[in-house]
Amino acid sequence: MSRVIVFVENFDGHVNPTSWEALGLGSTLAQQWGVPVTAVVFGKNATALAEDAAQYGADHVVVCEDETLATYRLEPYAALLAKLVSEHAPKLVLGVGTNIGRELFATAAADVGGGIITEASEVSVDGDTLTATRPAFSGKVLMKMSVSAPNAFLLIRARAFKPNSKDASRKAEVTTVSPVMAEADISTKVESFTPETSKVNLSDAGIIVSAGRGIANNPATPPAGVADATIWKAQHGFETVVQPLADVLGAAVGASRAAVDAGYISYDHQVGQTGKSVNPDLYIAAGISGAIQHQAGMRNSKVIVAINKDGDAPIFKMARYGIVGDLYEVLPALTEALKKKLGK
């Protein structure tokens, strides 16, 4: 039977939450085609995660908990995914464009001779043909690409689609499969993982408050003995006006390249062409002029709010809402107003 297959990314027994967005889109497309949606979960705790996949919309779940798939390695993962695709000839194989998703889907698509589209932000179907809209040239243009079933592969942008509401009453048929490759045939070994020390997760953030070079225009006076007054003012600004607003909104803190290059905040906060590409529901840009390199990383935000003293700053051309003013006056006022509005 034809179907839609959705790859559910699993690390150390925990699902990447963006996989539920892929499953939500998979359910929608499967309904349009009149076919079931099958989630595939490999690795640690896969059988237990099958229940979550059912509650997020899967009709069937295929799991493999073999030790060879306990942690992601391209060879065994791609071999098993390609085998499942060859056996079922699905209309579509769907996932999220993470580092794992891009590598895995490119390899599996090549193995089965399937077409692939990556970074999709909009999707439509006409018969067996799927058409996706994706950004190109750092988001300066949008292009449409089409791929036809069977064995079409699609990777979506994180936060571009909504997951289904979790329904604890939903059940799914669960099938356990065996791996394709034995451990002795796999050339790569995973010795250990070094966890990231950063707590910044811009890619998954629904709201981001970012600041740029303008954060250095802090009217506060540095204490005696400060080696670099400009850096102190900027770092103090992130702590006293940007972070409080982010806390009220439950947001992540971002920054422009100019801010991180100047040492105002660490590089893991950088949004832009050479930093993180983000797609939040709300992006607040304070003291950011809006250079093309920064736009490349945040132009797909659903709502952009710009705050800048320069009314001619490029950021205002892409913002839905703009405030011409000093971020040191606007952000504290906005924080207090939101505290009252949200009851915090």
Tell me what you see in this structure.
With 344 residues, this protein is α/β, with parallel strands linked by helices. The protein folds into two domains: 4-185, Rossmann fold (3-Layer(aba) Sandwich), CATH 3.40.50; 207-342, TPP-binding domain (Rossmann fold, 3-Layer(aba) Sandwich), CATH 3.40.50. The chain has nine helices and 17 strands. The chain has a seven-stranded parallel sheet with strand order 7-11-6-1-4-5-12, sandwiched between helices. A five-stranded parallel sheet has the order 14-13-15-16-17. Strands 8-9-10 form a three-stranded antiparallel sheet, with no helix packed on it. The longest helix has 21 residues, at 229-249. The model has no long low-confidence stretch (mean pLDDT 94).
Whole-number count of domains: 2
H-E order: EEEHEHEHEHEEEEEEEHEHEHEHEH
Gross CATH architecture of the largest domain: 3-Layer(aba) Sandwich
Distance between the termini: 53 Å
Largest sheet: 7 strands, parallel
- Sheet-strand content, in percent, reads 15-25%
How confident overall, as mean pLDDT? Answer: 94
CATH superfamily of the largest domain: HUPs
Name the shape in a single word: elongated
Oligomer, anyone?
single chain
Question: What name does the CATH topology of the largest domain carry?
Answer: Rossmann fold
What is the share of helical residues?
A: 25-40%
List unreliable stretches of 5+ residues.
none
Please list the strands of the largest sheet in the order they lie side by side. Answer: 7-11-6-1-4-5-12
